[in-house]
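Feature request disguised as a bug report, sorry. It would help if multi-protein outputs had a clear separator. Right now it looks like this:
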Amino acid sequence: QVQLVESGGGQVQPGGSLTLSCELSGRTFSLYVMGWFRQVPGKEREFVASVSPDESFAVYGSSVEGRFTISRSVTRSASDLTMNSLSPEDTAVYYCAAFQSFYRTTVSRDAAAYEYWGPGTRVTVSS
């Protein structure tokens, strides 16, 4: 059974940076597409980023492209989300997600494609 655990959330000032990490356990990390989503109370879950199993492809939500970077580490069995130029609009609970793919270059913006989810980590951007 796959388990995902996020870390790195917290409070940061506008314009600052923060890196979230998501560790995957229970299965072979290199078989899984990794994704990040975020949600604000009362709003729908929003796609943030996705990276393919071989790390050759990454896609981003329009509101974060150019500011956020998704990566993965085989040695740590983890995906990182580096967030720069943060604004109060980035305040949300951030969720890590994963699904297995036999294709090494798969990515997905669709939350329904992801089978496993972490409990979430809160990010607050405020002065």
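(second protein starts here, but nothing in the output says so)
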Amino acid sequence: QIQLMESGGGLVQPGGSLRLSCTASRLALERYNVGWFRQVPGKGREAIAYAGTYDEPDKYVESVKGRFSVSRDNAKKSVDLQMNSLKPEDTGVYYCAAGRDTYGSAWYMLRNWMYWGQGTQVTVSP
């Protein structure tokens, strides 16, 4: 059974940093586009960052641009989300997803992603 797993969530003070990792079992993650999503209480899940394959550039939504960055670690077979300068409004459950038909603006749409992790909680609070 294919599984995606997020790790690295936790409690951090405003201005702090966290690094989330997305790994997979029974899936060659390096061959898939990987998206990071966030769901805050009372709202839907939204796309925040994207790691394409090959030469496709990374993508970020405006609210995290300049603070978050994605990277692939092929040795660990993971896709990491480095989150810096965290704000209370970054609090939520963070999910990673893997897919193929997610080019252009398609990455924003949840239905285009094939596999999802269970999520990891990130809480930004004093």
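Even a blank line would do. Unrelated, but nice: The chain has a mean pLDDT of 95.
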